[in-house]
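Deliverable D4.2, example record:
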Amino acid sequence: MTVLKYMICEVLYGGRITDDLDRELFATFGEEYLKDGILNVNEYVFFVNDAKDKNAFKYKMPANQALEIGKYHEYVSTIPATDSPEVFGLDGNADLTFRMKESVEMVTTIMETRPKESSGGGGKTR
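Output generated by the structure prediction step:
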């Protein structure tokens, strides 16, 4: 598991991380999610959101399928497109905060890239 952790956290993704705190955070995720025995159990669960929604997606390793790659493809296709903030140990409001920040940045970018009026007329301003 040490080799797998090193290959994922340091080589595959770690080489793209430039900030030391981000590297430390990613290494922490690696320690939390890539534990010994993860590949030897029938169904290793990474995260279960059992607080509110009983039908919420369970982030888990699929049951041992003995090299049936099609089963893994089927499972991967069921993973939600947007991850719950709780998966990363964040409060549920983190997603709302992130989306609000993204919206404000998008509107600001649109406003800044609009064509500027060059005439000296008395038209409306932005």
